[in-house]
Amino acid sequence: MTEKLTVSVLGTGIMGAAMARNLARAGHAVRAWNRTRAKAEPLAADGVTVTGTPAEAVRGADVVLTMLYDGRAVLDVMRQAAEALRPGVAWVQSTTAGVEAVAELAGFAEERGLVFFDAPVLGTRQPAEAGQLTVLAAGPAADREAVAPVLEAVGARTVWTGEDGGAASATRLKLVANSWVIAATAAAGEVLALSRSLGVDPQAFFGLIEGGPLDMGYLRAKAGLVLEDRLVPPQFAVATAAKDARLIVEAGERNGARLDVAAASAERLERAAAQGHADEDMAAAYFASFDDDRT
Prior knowledge:
By secondary structure, the chain is of the alpha/beta class.
């Protein structure tokens, strides 16, 4: 039988809330904290204990899972929790934080005697809610058994990329994967925008590529969200995608790669956010093609 653990989930946004629910459904004792407590309160109906502070959430935990906005937020919250963190606790860090931030977080873990796992996930709202995420993980082989029940509860597959979480090998792979996701989403939006501008029915384009090498399910899925006005609730929000796009651009710059598509995608996402679409699905970057924000 799977070992039942006490798991602390810090951050209950789209992904964190789904992960907390799946951990509770797997029989683990889950304590959750979110900066805006009202957003975490619905988890109580799923058997999750909602706490008032990060320290309260992590006290006595076997595993701490962080799913916050960025690396700075993670470090801030973990510092708030520091007094209650006991040495030897496994820390599964799933926020997409960037390579440099992961190294800083690993340094904090070392100072506190925590076992650090760099463990970002691939997937959006729907697979997160179904417990079907892909977990990209790096961390010491000797301690993986301790976090296996957590990874199995939130994901359908775990891809191990290395033994040193601080080297950010999992985060590096996540940034590569997200660069493709963001570029594909931007391209889908521009196809729709150009179709509308030229008076071309988007379905004529889909029919043209149907069944061929240019066709892809992801294109149709993201286009469908725009065409059918299903941008809320988001699978992956514009604001978060913009943050990730900037992390990708910065990673490229620091390692000698100029990423023009990622940079342009970041600008499109930021423009859409400024138009009021920050909390909609990232497909809403479509609106950045129009100054008047028309549909």
